[in-house]
Amino acid sequence: MLKLKNISKYYHSNEVVALGLRKVSLEFNIGEFVAVTGESGSGKSTLLNVISGLDTYEDGEMYINSEETSYYSIEEWEAFRRQYIGFVFQNYNIIDSYSVLENVMIALTIQGYDSKSRKARALELIDKVGLTSHINHKASKLSGGQKQRCVIARALAKDCPIIVADEPTGNLDSESGKKIMSLLQEISKDKLVIVVTHNFDQVAPYATRKIRLFDGEVVEDKTIKKAKEVTKKLVVPTFTMKTKDLIGISFKNLLRTPKRTIFTTIVTIFTVIIFVFSYGNYIGQTSTSGKFMGGGYFGNVTDSRIIVTKFDNTSFTPEELTKLNNLRLVRTVMEHDVILDEIIFSYQEVTYNNGESWINSQENYLNPASMLKNSQLIKGTFPTNEHEVVIEETEGYDVGDTIVLGYSYPYDSDDITSIPNTTSFTITGIAETVKLNEWRGRMYFHEDFLNNPDVIARAYMKSANWGKAPLSIRVLNDGLDVFYIYGGEGITIDNSVEDNEIHISTASFSQLLETLDFSNDEPLSIIDGYTFKLIGDSAFAEKEIDVEITNVYEPSERNWSSVSMNSDTINKLLPDGVYQVSVLVFDEYDAQKVIKDIDDLGYNTIYPNGVTDQFSAIFAIFTSIYLAFILGFLMIVIYFITYIVLKNIQNSKKKDYLILRSIGASKKDLNRVTIIELLFTTIFAYIITMSLLIINENIVSKIPRYLRYFTAGSHILIFFLMIVLAVMLGRRFNKRIFGKSVITSLKQE
């Protein structure tokens, strides 16, 4: 069934040609037990390597069942080894990370042996070679003799017609050697067994034939005893590995080499993180590129704020407000959105070295605490009532401290108690600092405080931009304008004034007398019996109420207001409905998504932070192109650095893969095993990376929160890149393994 005709084998090294075999012609049949002897270097191992397809030959022809093999491809030699050859190597060629049982079973797996009886057959052979007590020991922990017996069990486990053994008893004691030879003789009854040995006397009792080589030539071929003739037709089935077996081998390789697997995972995690942060930074940069903080009318211009109105200038219904509040990515909706433009002062008393003191004030915008994410809270908790507040990181304050807030600039005050209308708040939390367009900070209040009538009234009467209060008030008499009040510093909120009453300044009273054709020195009683109306004029509606003028006051140096009234009187002038709201989100990236959703609902949106001019828009395009180029270049560099690192890691597995190849694993199967290993590692690394990023999204961290920039398509893109990397590595790795003969490659390891 096996015939060699004029086979020659040459080795080339440093321009020197060495002869391995010279015109060797031999024929072997099933049932023979052949002993191949000769001096060291005579060509014994080379003959076995050629017979088993582990090495090539240059001249002559080898026939398998009368079929020529000189034209065999790599795949056909793999199939030959898998189906025909069980090899016992002189230098073991055992997978050190596998246990004894796994080393034997892998040969059966590669051969496509029935998975149900695979373990039973392996255990039977392990028992026959005397390794039952070491069945679960790693091969790296075995002695030389134990490794040899394991390799013999692996070779015998395969149900193949040819067993070739290179010095199978070289590392065994005489008693163990006899058992192995007896075992080989037993299986030679229906197989061809070829044993290379330097000690023919040990093999002689079992051999049916002796071949002696010298200097690559056959110098003796003698029959010692007649081999049992096997007449049954040799039928060798074709085996293919199942996908589940390939996955099993991949898992086994990963689990049996934990250090290598962990290192590969770390490298992969690093690569995924670089990809995620590069892409996330690009999205973050391009989503704000070319934008400038502004918006004219609005003071609190941040990337979180979206102004929403209806195109027909009608008020929002409760159902419509609920729809806005329920939009994905919306943190909260401010119905009195002008509060966001109101400024509140925080006061700190500072003492000089000489003992003198002064009041330091910081301007802050009012914001709802509900707009904050948990991850934005550095420490502490959210406010639970109207007397608690969350502030940004500010020197001198911490959670639990009391902070004094008010609406008046302290001027020359040296005592906080001398500042009018101040309120004390308890600091319950410290939030991340948000960069604004100016020096003002942000404070976050409970909804009860923001819904306070006094706060609402102040917000409509004042704004961050001088002279642009959201509500203007006119004083009328008999349908004629007496004078205008434009908000800002024009009105003082004084809750000691009764409802529907106003106090006016001396200057305003003079204007009133002039309008009514009275002299400037008339007393207040002169206007008794006159009816006055206040007209609240906003962008969306006009309201009026009847009022009485009950007092005239002299404005102080710090108060130039025209009139004073309480907050309830002002609130009666406000529109009854909700005409303009602020939808608050996390940042500009979320804002762009929410704006689209709001547009789909049919509402008008204004995004103050997104205001650009023509130059900025053009600049944004070039910036995006530049950033895209940088991103692409960075990702390519990282990609190939990762490729090189992982390639070196893969090379550390080369010997194990060569051993698998030597016992019949095909190029296709090993390629799939490699790719599956890398895919499992990639998936695991990706899950770990995404889990870490999810944790980062929900905690206070200096690490940017880029995960929310990722759509399903973004994840698919990065995962696709990692799969391509795995396939590239797998193909490159296996190309190196299969580029040379098995023996040549093993010798280089």
Brief summary:
With 749 residues, this protein is α/β, with parallel strands linked by helices. Helices cover 37% and strands 23% of the residues. It is rod-shaped and about 150 Å long.
Tell me the helix content: 25-40%
Tell me the domain tally: 4
Strand portion, in percent? 15-25%
Shape: rod-shaped
Kindly state the mean pLDDT as a whole number? 83
Strands, count: 28
Instruction: Specify the biggest β-sheet.
Output: 7 strands, mixed
User: How many helix segments?
Assistant: 20
The helix-and-strand class reads alpha/beta
Q: pLDDT under 50 segments (min length 5)?
A: 289-295, 463-467
Rounded to the nearest angstrom, the distance between the terminal CA atoms is 33 Å
Tell me what the CATH architecture of the largest domain is: 3-Layer(aba) Sandwich
Widest beta sheet: strand line-up:
21-20-24-25-23-26-22
Taking all Cα atoms into account, the compactness measure Rg is 45 Å
Question: What is the CATH first-level class name of the largest domain?
Answer: Alpha Beta
CATH superfamily of the largest domain: P-loop containing nucleotide triphosphate hydrolases
CATH topology grouping of the largest domain: Rossmann fold
